[in-house]
Design a protein that fits this description.
It is found in: Lipid droplet. Keywords: Hydrolase, Lipid droplet. Its main location: other. This is Lipid droplet-associated hydrolase. By secondary structure, this protein is of the alpha/beta class. It has a single domain, classed as Alpha/Beta hydrolase fold, catalytic domain (Rossmann fold, 3-Layer(aba) Sandwich). The protein is about 40% helix and about 15% strand. It contains 11 helices and 9 strands. A 9-stranded mixed β-sheet has the order 1-2-3-5-4-6-7-8-9, with helices on both faces. Strand 6, helix 3 and strand 7 form a beta-alpha-beta unit. Helix 1 runs parallel beside helix 11, helix 5 packs antiparallel against helix 8 and helix 6 packs across helix 7. The longest helix is centred in the middle third of the chain and has 18 residues. The radius of gyration is 19 Å and the shape is globular.
């Protein structure tokens, strides 16, 4: 594991020691994975450790979740460890061995299970694990729970979940042509060309901010980490696989672990429409399902990360 930055230590309060996460590249089963880690500030050995594993949606760049996870850490007064990991192929840099490689949905599943296994080995027996999945990351979180049902997973937060029938959603129907091999190749080429033309980072960041309305921090992630030809091709390839493979809801798994879940839906979500919320209530009356009343959108990390962080942090504090 190669650490690329270190936490800030400019304040005396233990909680404020980690206003910036530790960034590292983990080698998991031979694949290099960018990760973020907010260490716990509570090192009392008599206390049960709590570890949150964040599984992103698509694009699977964990950097988009920094404000959200920082808020979770602050809301919990630093009394838990938070880990987040990018998807395979959804990052650029010297850690990428083969930029031409496209990673399958199953490889993303295997990667998240392996990362969870690494965490169970790192922390002592009896540690409480919490999974948080966003969008298709919610489906990946279900896969981790299914593979490791007896490994201390106490809660699974499913945020704007896309866990079934993705191709039949409004966005799935409208965007399906974007995931065709010829189109994703063309889009990747256009992105590479734009990066070449606007090679100066501040220029590209400004263009992204103007075009998308993203704030400076999120525009920095988009311009410097997402907009690479091979990253975009992997995002589109994975999305195509989601359309084909995320079809049937794993009702048996949800029934079996009904007390562990919190499902959080949006009112205007076109990846996980409001009908999914009502379906969840009807099929799983014992599962805690919530309909957002704060006007959050599916991509909550772009503008609502802190608000969601307060909610998730509050749920963790109730454990």
């Amino acid at each position: 594991m190669t650490t690329t930055t270190t936490p800030s230590t400019g304040h005396t309060s233990p909680v404020s020691l980690f206003k910036n996460p530790i960034r590292a590249i983990w080698n998991v089963h031979g694949e290099n994975v960018p990760t973020l880690w907010w260490p716990s500030c509570d090192l009392d050995p008599s206390q049960t450790r709590t570890v949150l594993l964040m599984i992103p949606g698509n694009p699977g760049l964990i950097d988009y979740y920094t404000p959200f996870l920082q808020t979770v850490h602050d809301t919990c007064q630093g009394k838990l460890d938070i880990f987040g990991a990018s998807h395979l192929g959804h990052s650029s840099g010297s850690h990428v061995a083969d930029p031409s490689r496209l990673f399958t949905l199953q490889e993303q599943v295997d990667s998240k299970i392996a990362i969870f296994d690494a965490l169970t080995e790192k922390f002592p027996k009896g540690t409480r694990f919490v999974l948080a999945g966003h969008s298709m990351g919610s489906w990946l979180a279900l896969k981790v729970l299914k593979a490791r049902p007896n490994h201390g997973i106490e809660r699974v937060f499913e945020l704007f979940p896309t866990i079934h029938k993705i191709a039949d959603t409004p966005n799935g129907r409208n965007m399906k042509n974007l995931f065709k091999p010829s189109v994703r190749t063309m889009v990747g080429g256009v992105v590479s060309t734009l990066r070449f033309i606007f090679s100066a980072p501040p220029v590209l960041r400004s263009i992204v901010s103007l075009a998308t309305g993203q704030d400076a921090e999120m525009a920095q992630v988009t311009s410097q980490k997402l907009l690479h030809g091979h990253v975009v091709r992997n995002c589109l390839f994975l999305a195509g696989q989601e359309m084909e493979q995320i079809t049937e809801m794993d009702t048996a798994l949800i029934h079996e672990h009904s007390g562990k879940f919190v499902f959080y839906y949006g009112k205007t979500d076109e990846w996980s429409p409001i009908e999914n919320y009502y379906e969840m209530q009807d099929k799983f009356p014992k599962v805690k399902s919530i309909l957002c009343e704060q006007g959050m959108v599916h991509a909550f990390v772009l503008g609502h990360g802190e608000a969601m962080g307060v909610l998730v942090g509050g749920w963790i504090n109730e454990l």
